[in-house]
Amino acid sequence: MSALVAVLTLPLVAALGVFVVPARLRVPMALASAAMITGAALALCVTVARGGPVMLMAGGWAPPIGIALRADGLAAALIIMTALVMGAVTCAAWFEASPARAGPRMAFGFWPLMLLLWGALNAVYLSRDLFNLYVGLELISLAAVALAALSGTAQAFAAALRYMIFALAGSLLYLAGVVLAYAAHGTLDIGLLTARTPAQGDALALGLMTAGLLAKTALFPFHVWLPPAHASAPAPASALLSALVPKASFLILMRLWFEAMPDLATPAALLALAVPGAAAVLWGGVLALVQKRLKLIIAYSTVAQLGYMFLVFPLAGGGGAAQPWAAGAWTGAVFHALSHGLAKAAMFLAAGIYIAAVGSDRLGDLRGLARALPMTGFAFALAAITLMGLPPSGGFTAKYLLMTSAFAAGQWPWALLLAGGGLLAAGYFYRPMVALFARDARVPLLRSIPRAWQSVPLVLAVLSIMLGLLSATPFDLLQVGRPPPASEGL
Amino acid sequence: MTLTYYALTGAVLVGLGAYGLLAVPHLIRRIIAFNLMGSGLFLFFGAAGARGGVPDAIPQALIITGIVVALSASALAVGLVVALARRSGKAFLPDDYPADDEDRAP
């Protein structure tokens, strides 16, 4: 209980704190609060794993008047993944965001925005109220847009504004759905909506909320804002934008389709969610193949990797989910979200090290860097293994679970897509790897990179591999309090 | 009956705002369109949330929260437009400049 309150309030208090303390205390305070929030996240995880879901009625008011917060296995897993990524990004930004190197905008603005984003993400993971989720989504968008604009170039401002227009349109669509749901049922609590009497406008309400969330998750064809915004942000900010921000809106989609209104999940609706996902895997992969800059390759790979998560809808949803393969697909999609978060953050932080070392992320300028910075090269390769879905990584476990469900469900085209997407990933990560591991003579680096900085992406990449090697513990955690449509069989 | 007028007005505002958000390239106008759409939604929410003609306190509390959220989003958006205009001299996104040069604001 107290851990649940701590993961919500500590980041917000710390965000205000780093804003007002003198400049020399800013980084120590951010590091200390990151350590405290990570501790609270671990404590919450242990409580959920041992004692089942944790509920909190804010202010002692029960829904429909009050707002319920609930930490189930899914929320706890995302909270701990967020804490790991945030912790690593904090360490990397400590090296990267010094006023002398990164400019005052980054050195001042990064810390409060990062902590604000952290608090908003945790709020979305825990909230059980559709309007509270809207407020959380808006907080995420505001912090994320500002993070995307941090580098302060005209390009970055244009990318951030394009992101903002998509995000604002998405939140208005979501809000319109929330209004219709309230008008029909007089409640916005997910638990009470599950037990509602179905009304006529439900399909429209769910459709509007879903459309808004798809724009925020950057699912194909709403992905156009993502690559420029993620690629023009400073590397630690890109890591947060790519690894964490899309997962929040995806989590709300899962809450809506599996917990609030599972009765509306007709096969046609579920297919309509998965087909853009499939298109994203292919289109994002093809565009990643032709990019010339490392950060754009990683950003288009995010477009592709987000597509896989949407396969959960036809594989695990619908029909009250009596199918025996539903649980496998549900767990597989969440595993994919977790391993993608860790690996993608590792990749962007590695890209940040390369940019600091040679001042560019064009593939031609990166040739032979693996010899000068071996730990970073190794981290990049490990993260690429996870994203390609090769064993023994977390990405492999995710794809294995999804593929098994696809065969069990008789929906083999999705299995083909999983295999094809893996091949595309191998293709688009082959080019940066060839450049990095080339046997060229190197020009000297612009600056030396401390080993401690180099180890940060390595730790994240190793964690994404460990998620596959030690998959039993996160697997058990995810089973705590998962929705009925995702608890059958396998 | 009055509630129906409020709801219909809200729906019209949402429609106008949606058109502006999609069709107008000037960024300040797009922000105004976003606010128009938001206000329409809130008006609709107030009318549709009064179930059975009795005013309901929850939608009103949610609307107030929503107005605060929309205000902070608009503030950030305007700040970004100003920063973009200072650097590039244009209040448009790079890909959608208007066809007629008269409409182009500095």
- The chain-level structural class of chain B is mainly alpha
Distance between the termini of chain A: 32 Å
Class by SSE composition of chain A: mainly alpha
Distance N terminus to C terminus of chain B? 46 Å
Q: Biggest sheet of chain B, open or closed, and with what strands and sense? A: none
How much beta of chain B, percentage-wise?
under 5%
What CATH architecture of chain B do you see?
Orthogonal Bundle
Question: Which two chains form the greatest contact, residue counts included?
Answer: A-B, 32 and 32 residues
What is the third-level CATH name, the topology of chain B? Helix Hairpins
User: Overall pLDDT of chain B, averaged?
Assistant: 85
Residue-averaged pLDDT of chain A = 91
* Radius of gyration of chain A (Å): 21 Å
How would you concisely characterize the structure shown here?
The complex is a heterodimer of chains A (490) and B (106). Chain A is built from 21 helices and two strands. Chain A has 490 residues and is mostly helical.
Outline the secondary-structure elements.
The complex is a heterodimer of chains A (490) and B (106).
Chain A: H1 2-20, H2 23-51, E1 54-57, E2 68-71, H3 73-96, H4 99-126, H5 130-148, H6 154-185, H7 190-194, H8 202-217, H9 226-232, H10 235-243, H11 245-260, H12 267-290, H13 294-309, H14 312-316, H15 326-358, H16 369-372, H17 374-388, H18 394-408, H19 412-436, H20 451-469, H21 472-478
Helix pairs in contact in A: 1-2, 1-4, 2-3, 2-4, 3-4, 3-10, 3-15, 3-20, 3-21, 4-5, 5-6, 5-11, 6-8, 6-9, 8-11, 9-10, 9-13, 10-15, 12-13, 12-19, 13-15, 13-19, 15-17, 15-18, 15-20, 17-19, 17-20, 18-19, 18-20
Chain B: H1 2-23, H2 27-49, H3 57-88
